[in-house]
């Protein structure tokens, strides 16, 4: 029976091969559950994955590789499995040609836990302990103390009637205390640090819909929608190797309606635009405020705050990715420790810490999706002096922005032409991840942030202004649609057919997208957004917007866990992908909420205590 089960657990040719069904995993669970405890045998079942890579120029269009599951005794190694396949009439030719290779293995035996994983578990345990102590301290000691102080202040402010001021036992007892003690609200250093980890307080901070005066309300909606767009694009990308009808998927990606998904790359440019806008807007307001007080902005603290805002949470997510997640799951596609999910992180994690992972060892990048954070930090480094110049010497600042934008255009055009890149993604390492090709939207954001402060909205709305606003909306919509749907013509011979067209698109389309988005922000902020402003400025977006950074860090961990633990292929349908997408968004934001209240918000509070601001 054990032999029949092992034979049954191996991958076999299914139906739908001509439609691209080349993921023949078999039954992973059935194989690894064949153990010596269940049968009178001296070994366990061990599951191997073999990959057949088509010869260049051969194979089926749209299909990259054939994957086959092999179930063998646990004493077999990779060489034994190759010999087994070599003895098969089906696979002998491919093994001898060297194009069928065993790529991974999994057995029932759990791999030994590394010391770094134990350290990660200890860090998480200490964090949970701080959260527990901080929450208990907040609820039992701090909150009652605040209520008592609030009640005392209300009693003192109740009025000047004589009856209220008549002495009694309680009045005498309170009045005997020094005034500074009756109004003592300050916690000790230990208490203040513990309060930073209180779930009671941190959950309230994250879920609050309050916004500071003068805030740009529509940005919250734009940020959340852009993040869901990123998750949607990654949902399709991560599932791509697991479809059992890959040819149908290739055809679907060429339809008009799906272009907004296959061209989701510009969602990242939305974040570059928002980053430049907020940096410019908030920094100029701070410079104006400090100028009135005769003070200067502490630029060193500006950079430190940015680094502290991003890095500890970033490193915590990396710790989970490197040392914890590999031991949490298993499956036919799940890489085995100690190599883990990302072998590059062991040697290159420091490039992420310094935000240079888009330049240094780019072929061995750790957490490949964090190239965005490197770009964003690099933009911030040069953006602060750029905004300072724009604020102090307006003409010079505008000229510098135009020069940087022109330099980016020229560099992008030259690289696109030299390496014969095609839209919409171009070359990942030479174009997509490089700041000199991606700075356009950030510069547009800087300009829009400056304009929001310079341009004061008029109280009265004239017919001329309404006409101009209508024209502006139409132009912005035309720009956005051209960016999203120009790629549709690639598949039908109408657009992006020549090298010059591809170069032009790759050079300007990201900046054009940011300009369209800039119009949306300006119009909404000055009261000309209509229903768009109502939707984007909805208060419910505010807490979701706060979770965007953590959602960006954590959502790939979720997608990896979902897709690499699959035991059977995914059959692509529109409804299936909607279901996956909604599940990924919900779980990503749920995990982001936990990461935010446990790591991000507490450490921001610690920074406030350290610098007393």
Automatic annotation (TrEMBL):
Transmembrane regions: 116-140, 218-236, 256-284, 314-334, 369-391, 398-419, 439-455, 467-488, 512-535, 547-566, 578-603
Keyword Mitochondrion: no
Family annotation (Pfam families): Acyl_transf_3 (PF01757), NRF (PF20146)
Signal sequence region: none
Span of domain Nose resistant-to-fluoxetine protein N-terminal: 1-103
Organism: Branchiostoma floridae (Florida lancelet)
Molecular function GO terms recorded: acyltransferase activity, transferring groups other than amino-acyl groups
Keywords: Membrane, Transmembrane, Transmembrane helix
Name of the encoding gene: LOC118432808
Protein name as catalogued: Nose resistant to fluoxetine protein 6-like
């Amino acid at each position: 029976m054990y032999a029949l089960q092992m034979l049954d657990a191996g991958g076999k040719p299914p139906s739908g091969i001509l439609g691209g069904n080349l993921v023949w995993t078999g039954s992973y669970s059935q194989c690894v559950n064949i153990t010596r405890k269940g049968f009178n045998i001296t070994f366990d079942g061990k599951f191997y994955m073999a990959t057949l890579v088509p010869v260049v120029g051969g194979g089926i269009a749209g299909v990259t590789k054939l994957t086959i599951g092999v179930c063998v005794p646990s004493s077999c190694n990779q060489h034994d499995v190759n010999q087994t396949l070599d003895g098969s009439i089906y696979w002998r030719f491919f093994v001898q040609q060297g194009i069928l290779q065993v790529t991974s293995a999994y057995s029932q035996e759990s791999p030994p836990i590394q010391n770094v994983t134990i350290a990660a578990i200890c860090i998480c345990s200490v964090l949970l302990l701080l959260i527990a102590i901080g929450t208990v301290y907040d609820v039992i000691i701090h909150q009652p103390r605040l209520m008592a102080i609030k009640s005392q202040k209300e009693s003192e402010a109740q009025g000047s009637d004589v009856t209220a001021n008549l002495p009694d036992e309680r009045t005498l007892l309170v009045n005997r205390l020094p005034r500074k003690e009756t109004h003592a609200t300050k916690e000790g250093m230990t208490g203040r640090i513990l309060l930073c980890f209180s779930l009671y307080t941190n959950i309230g901070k994250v879920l609050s819909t309050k916004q500071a005066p003068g805030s740009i309300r529509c940005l919250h909606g734009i940020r959340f929608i852009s993040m869901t767009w990123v998750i949607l694009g990654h949902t399709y990308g991560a599932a791509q190797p697991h479809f059992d009808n890959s040819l149908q998927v290739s055809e679907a990606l060429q339809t008009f309606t799906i272009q907004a998904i296959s061209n989701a790359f510009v969602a990242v440019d939305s974040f570059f635009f928002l980053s430049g806008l907020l940096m410019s807007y908030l920094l100029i307001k701070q410079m104006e405020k400090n100028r009135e007080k005769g003070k200067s902005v502490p630029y060193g603290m500006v950079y430190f705050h940015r680094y502290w805002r991003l890095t500890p949470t970033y490193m915590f997510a990396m710790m989970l990715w490197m040392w914890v997640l590999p031991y949490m799951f298993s499956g036919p596609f799940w890489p085995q420790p100690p190599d883990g999910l990302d072998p590059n992180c062991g040697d290159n994690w420091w490039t992420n810490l310094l935000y240079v992972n888009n330049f240094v060892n780019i072929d061995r990048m750790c957490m490949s999706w964090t190239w965005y954070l490197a770009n964003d930090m690099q933009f911030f480094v040069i953006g602060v002096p750029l905004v300072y110049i724009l604020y102090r010497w307006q003409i010079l600042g505008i000229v510098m922005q135009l020069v940087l934008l022109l330099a980016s255009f020229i560099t992008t055009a030259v690289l696109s032409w030299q390496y014969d890149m095609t839209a919409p993604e171009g070359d990942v390492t030479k174009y997509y991840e490089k700041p000199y090709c991606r700075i356009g939207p950030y510069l547009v954001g800087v300009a829009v942030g400056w304009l929001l402060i310079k341009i004061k909205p008029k109280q009265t709305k004239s017919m001329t202004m309404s006409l101009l606003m209508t024209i502006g909306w139409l132009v912005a919509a035309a720009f956005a649609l051209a960016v999203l749907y120009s790629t549709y013509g690639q598949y039908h011979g109408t657009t992006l057919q020549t090298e010059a067209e591809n170069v032009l698109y790759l050079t300007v389309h990201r900046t054009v997208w940011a300009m369209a988005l800039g119009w949306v922000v300006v119009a909404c902020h000055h009261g000309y957004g209509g229903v768009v402003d109502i939707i984007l400025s909805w208060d419910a977006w505010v807490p979701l917007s706060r979770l965007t950074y953590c959602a960006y860090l954590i959502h790939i961990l979720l997608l990896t866990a979902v897709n690499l633990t699959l035991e059977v292929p995914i059959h692509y349908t529109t409804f299936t992908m909607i279901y996956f997408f909604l599940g990924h968004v919900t779980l990503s934001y749920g995990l982001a909420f936990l990461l935010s209240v446990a790591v991000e918000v507490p450490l921001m509070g610690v920074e406030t205590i350290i610098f007393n601001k």
